Structure of 7-carboxy-7-deazaguanine synthase:
Amino acid sequence: MSDASLRITEIFYSLQGEARTIGLPTVFVRLTGCPLRCGYCDSEYAFYGGERMLLTDILAAVANFNPRYICVTGGEPLAQPNCLPLLSALCDAGYSVSLETSGAMDIAGVDARVSTVMDLKSPSSGEVSKNRYENIPLLAKKDQLKFVLGSREDYDWAKFKLDEFGLAQQVGDVLFSPVHGELAERDLADWIVEDNLPVRFQMQLHKLLWGDKPGV
Ligand SMILES: C[S@@+](CC[C@H](N)C(=O)[O-])C[C@H]1O[C@@H](n2cnc3c(N)ncnc32)[C@H](O)[C@@H]1O
Ligand SMILES: Nc1nc2[nH]cc(C(=O)O)c2c(=O)[nH]1
Ligand code: SF4
Ligand SMILES: [Mg+2]
């Protein structure tokens, strides 16, 4: 294994709070730095700083928790080229690996064993122009598409994209999530039911349990 290095903000053990493996004990590897600035971002503390770590040291830190599930997130993980060997090394080690990405970067090099959770940025994030729609055909049933929605306008936009790109047919799960503290959870749930959308409603479980803070 090459001993590449990556800038890391935190490595912690918690319950997966989002997406398909929600509720399962998971180790989170949060990479430092992000080229986007979503207005609602709950991980601004990962924009700068962090600590440079060797791949072997990251693997050792992860192994300490004896986990089954690993979630690589950030910041924007794919903004660091060495994220690709990290993902492959985690798969080689036998973990079930997911990747949280904005999809503003090319996902072509992501290891085929990884479940990519690609977040298409909605208009209210302020970063809708950064979506790389070219990534969509690269996604498969093992992957997930996430929409984080801050308003009814965002919801209508997401509904349109669902249809425009046939997203429910492309990936295993399409996730609709409210921006925490911005859109009433129940409103989003009611709209999904009214429209009979083929999507999975999700709320950030970790914030219900522990609040909005790093390390959970
Ligand atoms: C912090 S980001 C890191 C990965 C990548 N940069 C991305 O945006 O997908 C992880 C996920 O948290 C979501 N997120 C960030 N702040 C949020 C908030 N206030 N409410 C709901 N979801 C949020 C993002 O939209 C993204 O899906
Ligand atoms: N518990 C927990 N689950 C998560 N799933 C995705 C997260 C992220 O920040 O990407 C996250 C997080 O920060 N905490
Ligand atoms: S892309 Fe992800 S980490 Fe970057 S600002 Fe948006 S939510 Fe935060
Ligand atoms: Mg988070």
